[in-house]
Design a protein that fits this description.
The protein contains six helices and seven strands. It has one domain (2-185): 3-Layer(aba) Sandwich (Aminopeptidase). Helix 1 crosses helix 3 (40-52). Strand 6 and strand 7 form a beta hairpin. The chain has helices spanning 12-26, 32-37, 40-52, 103-117, 136-139, 167-185; strands at 2-6, 59-65, 68-77, 87-94, 123-128, 143-152, 155-164.
Length: 200
């Protein structure tokens, strides 16, 4: 059974663990000092602060399968002046064994729905240039708009800012991804596809 729901305080530890593990596994191109900086304690404090926010403009979702949390997703208002967006599709991470399933696009659809319904659209997505997962964003209708370096722990990491203007196209293409993943799981399609991972 799969589900996506709003995170609770009791979920912070598992969210922080998944975030730390996914960065190490999905971003091997990053210098070791970046991973040391973005360690479990950093992530625990980060998500603890997020869940303490009561503005109603940002939220964290947990992604569950087989009655356990296997990923998370987070959205917030855009506060980056370099890109002309209102909302930020900030982070979406799944444990490796659950990528390529319907869980990734399901989580992204929930993220987009939250931003759109709360008046935070158009939205942006930031992705590291070296991340293989960013290739999915243009397929969803996102347009590469900003090219720059992000500095973490003194290291310059090239990143790309994507603007998502058309909510309907974004949602429709996510729905197609969800349907394709469901077909693959029943054996009617054979070729797996990568599911997006967003930096955060």
């Amino acid at each position: 059974m799969k589900s996506i729901s709003c995170a609770e305080k009791k979920d912070i530890r598992i969210i922080a663990r998944i975030h730390t593990e996914c960065w190490r596994e999905a971003y091997p191109f990053m210098p070791g000092q970046v991973h040391l900086n973005r360690n479990y304690q950093f992530r625990f404090e980060q998500w603890n602060d997020w869940l303490a926010d009561r503005s109603g403009l940002r939220t964290v979702f947990v992604v569950e399968a087989a009655n356990q949390i296997v990923g998370f997703a987070a959205v917030k208002p855009n506060d980056d002046p370099d890109i002309d967006a209102i909302g930020d599709l900030h982070a979406c991470y799944l444990l490796p064994e659950y990528r390529g399933t319907s869980l990734g696009p399901l989580a992204m659809r929930e993220m987009a729905r939250f931003l759109y319904n709360s008046g935070q659209w158009p939205a942006c997505i930031w992705a590291f240039r070296e991340s293989p997962y960013r290739r999915i964003y243009p397929q969803l209708g996102a347009v590469a708009t900003v090219f720059r370096d992000r500095v973490i722990a003194g290291c310059r990491l090239p990143e790309i800012g994507y603007l998502v203007s058309d909510y309907e196209i974004f949602a429709q293409r996510l729905n197609r991804m969800i349907s394709s993943a469901a077909q693959r799981q029943t054996g009617s399609l054979r070729r797996p596809r990568r599911v997006a991972g967003l930096p955060g």
